[in-house]
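Hi R.,

Here's the input for the adenosine-3',5'-cyclic-monophosphate complex you asked about:
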Amino acid sequence: MAGDITFTMIKPGAVKNEHIGEILAMINQAGFHIVSLKMMRLSKDSAAKFYAVHKDKPFYESLIDFMSSGPIVAAILQKENAVEDYRKLIGATDPAKAEEGTIRKRFAESIQRNAVHGSDSDETAQWEAAFFFPEIERFYKEP
Ligand code: CMP
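And here is the predicted structure with adenosine-3',5'-cyclic-monophosphate in place:
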């Protein structure tokens, strides 16, 4: 299964703006199977651990505040070439640079409030998926 999954979060801004349904529809329409899905609010501590790789960045503290400011939707997505294909679907981190038709172009408010997170490698996808979902909460599509 490794290599076929990615991890995503619909961030607090997009949840607050009622875009959960439209974003999940775009994900399904792009051919991703939803393996796991839940809505929850991250504690500051959990958000800090999830984004620890960015701890030296100037935006880290404000990112943690934002990511713990309201509910998020977390999901594991399955598709051949999942990490790369999902990054194409969401578009560039900075919505000003995101292509037309991407999730961030449609729903991001700023580089921080950029609607969704997507894993940046297969290794990260495995770690991020495990951060949120145990095996009993995963429902893979069988070949
Ligand atoms: P994400 O894909 O979740 O990974 C790290 C997050 O940090 C990113 O999306 C943005 O929300 C945020 N981020 C990245 N670069 C900046 C920046 N220059 N200023 C503010 N936030 C940023």
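One thing worth noting: The chain has a mean pLDDT of 97.

Cheers,
M.
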